[in-house]
Amino acid sequence: DDDIFSSVFCENSEKLINVHLFALAAKYYSLSNLGVCTPLEDVLEALKGDSEGATGIKPDEFMNNKKSHEVQVMSELVDNVANYCGIKQVIDIGSGKGYLSSFLSMQYNLKVYGIDSSSSNTNGAHERNRKLKKHWRAYQSRGRENLKSQSLEKAKDRPAESEIKCKTINEELLNNANSLQNQDQVIIQGLVPSCGFTEMATPATNTETEADLVTGTQPHETKLSEEVLAILNVLPADAVEDFSSSHYNCGELCEEEKVQRKMTSLKTKARKSSESNLYFPLTSCITAETELGDIITDLEDCMMVGLHTCGDLAANTLRIFTAKPEIKAVCSVGCCYHLLSEQFENQEAWGFPMCQYLKDEGWCCGRNARMSACLALERVAVGQMLPTESLFYRAVLQVIIEEIYGVTKSDRHVGKTFSKSSSFVDYVRKSLKKLELDDSKLPDSCIMDYYEKYKHRMNELEAFNMLKVVLAPCIEVLILLDRLCYLKEQKNIAWSGLVKLFDPVKSPRCYAVIALKNQSCS
């Protein structure tokens, strides 16, 4: 409780005096310990109901390991929410290069509008999507070849007698109906593997006639066709088309099955003809006041998603969701907390706080705290240490800029200069040029004097940043619970929650804010 942690800081000086208790307190107030998150497994179970799971194609070949992990997990959740709400349209806010959007459209056949403020991202998404479709078809072709190989292996494993009976089925049907009554189950077992599946039929009854067997009207054959068709329907579209175009030496017994497969193939081709336009990258800057109908002409009941929406965009995604009746659900994973605007900054619209409670209490974070919230404790915990040397370079540079140039604030950024620098002197000179400061009045010896002056304090800097890492989850809790409380305050929300979607080592910003509107809302 709070009394236990009261001795973390000195009551008079307010300095940290107990690092161990500080770490325990930070862990105590983290999301993983507070018990406010809903397990992803529980959410998926509640959404799926009696529906079948989707056939999974992993996106490993299309993106790096981190992005593949994020897209695969989030797309499955989005598809389940969309099915639960009975919607087929998805709006991906801050879609970037279109990783999530393209996967949702290709894997789950959802109609996705990806909106990003950067035209270069949108143009890149167009080109990437075009190339991805070719890659995707090749991926599915390999999947079909694997199915064929599996079918051949199964056929090889079957007794030679069954293969002979499958090849000579017409002769056996015409010449020996009585024998067939005892052997039809074995024959069907020989037939079904040509489709890549195992036994699905039951023995024929003694009352079935030879005509019934030849025309394929017996009950168990109809059941067989229906079950095979049902399984074909959950396969990727190209796989269905491949099966329907295959040729079998199975005689008239397969006629009904051929007809149904042909119908399935036609439906598949019709669906594929429209699939080329299932993903639409659009360029637009999204704010809380954005009218989606002005951007998307065929806006219908839909779901809004955002995978690592930056700064205020995550907050605005939730505001649009609550304000627009067409949006029935939202799944938002935010990032870049340091770019959030705050109410105390006298902004007209801000990203923090969102809920009325924190507004009334006058809560604020400040940029330093929000910067700390972006740190990744889980990565540090598994040995991915902080970049202490680059942080040290940056800290000494700031001292130089303040003391030599008298600059305490700048709109310009140093960026990733450290990785491109051969030494501290090189780093300082490149940084000064980026900041448009004259480096000619600063000799190398002066730069190195600053380095030597503060070098012994590098360990202090490392310890300080480790404390910031430990505190990071607590600040993230404040930001995420603020967003959840905002949704809880809305009257048209049926359910809302925080869900840990990703492995935090692979993807540190791993929490999603999810909400579904009341079905009566329109």
UniProtKB/TrEMBL annotation:
Domain of life: Eukaryota
Stretches the record annotates as Disordered: 138-161
Domain Methyltransferase: 66-343
Pfam families for this protein: Methyltransf_32
Compositionally biased intervals (Basic and acidic residues): 142-161
SUPFAM superfamilies: S-adenosyl-L-methionine-dependent methyltransferases (SSF53335)
Protein name: MET25 protein
Gene: Mettl25
